[in-house]
Specification:
- The chain is mainly alpha-helical.
- The protein is built from five helices and no strands.
């Protein structure tokens, strides 16, 4: 008997996770990697180990304090995603002055 190896296609969950990692790491997801489950798994493992540089994108402590003060005055909550991104926090502050 011949032993034939077939490459299994990547699952939709794998592709969705790989796209999220590509977005997080600001890298391209190669088309050829998406065709094979094993090669996509190797790519995901490599990308998951990378730490994105989130230090510069976090809001400053002064931004957070000001936003929280505005939130108390306006009696509303600052959205959670604003605490992860300086630009979103700035837009929230501008919209709630």
């Amino acid at each position: 008997m011949e032993s034939t190896t077939y490459a299994l296609p990547a699952t939709p969950k794998q592709i969705a996770y790989a796209r999220a990692l590509a977005l997080r790491n600001q890298t391209l997801l190669p088309c050829e990697v998406q065709q094979d489950r094993r090669s996509l798994s190797v790519w995901i493992d490599a990308q998951a180990k990378l730490k994105p540089d989130t230090q510069d994108s976090r809001p400053t402590s002064r931004q957070v304090a000001f936003a929280e003060r505005l939130a108390r005055i306006k009696r509303r909550a600052v959205p959670d995603e604003c605490f992860r991104d300086k630009g979103l926090m700035s837009k929230w502050i501008d919209g709630n002055k």
